[in-house]
Amino acid sequence: MSTSDHFSARLLSADTLLVRRIRDGDERAWELLIAKYEGRLHAYVSRKLSDTASVDDMVQDTFLGLHLSLPHFDETRSIESYLFAICGFKITDHLRRLQKTSSQAIPIESPDRARMVSSIHRSRERRGDEEKKIAQLLASDIRKWKSNQDWVKLACIELLFVSRLANKVIAEKLGLTEQKVANYKSDYLIRMKSQMSSSQKSKDFC
């Protein structure tokens, strides 16, 4: 076995171990996986897309895609190759949708009042359900962090999503690196999206 093959085997084994830990509910393993590949994915997407917000969303959606597929993930596959395959597909889909939107004129319609009221009602109802679910998930996470005495993460999430402070400010307040704060943020957003997606699928199935 060549040196590169030996290194690849070791890398695959380390990633496989992370996958198994994540499947067992180990949040730390998920954070490590994000920290390991987020920078490379971000650089890759930045070469394809110019909009910073779209780049960040694309990277998060890539990890979300991985998270949702983990129950059926083939451990003989390379996580790195799998992540970049997901990312490449999402970039292609994103660019195709942009092209389609720019090439089509949006028809202006005058919706009847009954349909408009019904649509608004459904939108408010859906938003209310989502807010309720987010509150439940957040309360569950807070109980878990308190039980594990994970005060730093609890404080970080609060400063990020309640106080809405910048990563740099939070890092200085908590004595963390900006990258660590970014990892906490990505991890939480991805897991929240994943749980919301799973919850919606269950609701649709029922």
Structure notes:
By secondary structure, this protein is mostly helical. It has two domains: 1-105, Rna Polymerase Sigma Factor, Chain: A (Orthogonal Bundle); 127-198. It has eight helices and no strands. It has helices spanning 3-23, 27-46, 52-69, 79-103, 113-147, 151-161, 167-174, 178-205. Helix 3 (52-69) packs across helix 4 (79-103). It is globular and about 50 Å long. The termini are far apart.
Coarse structural class: mainly alpha
CATH fold type of the largest domain: Rna Polymerase Sigma Factor, Chain: A
Measure the end-to-end span. Answer: 51 Å
CATH superfamily of the largest domain: RNA polymerase sigma factor, region 2, helix turn helix motif
Backbone shape: globular
Number of helices: 8
Question: How are helices and strands ordered from N to C?
Answer: HHHHHHHH
CATH architecture label of the largest domain: Orthogonal Bundle
Care to count the β-strands? 0
Number of domains: 2
Q: Supply Rg.
A: 20 Å
Q: Give the helix level as a range of percent.
A: over 70%
Largest sheet: none
CATH domain class of the largest domain:
Mainly Alpha
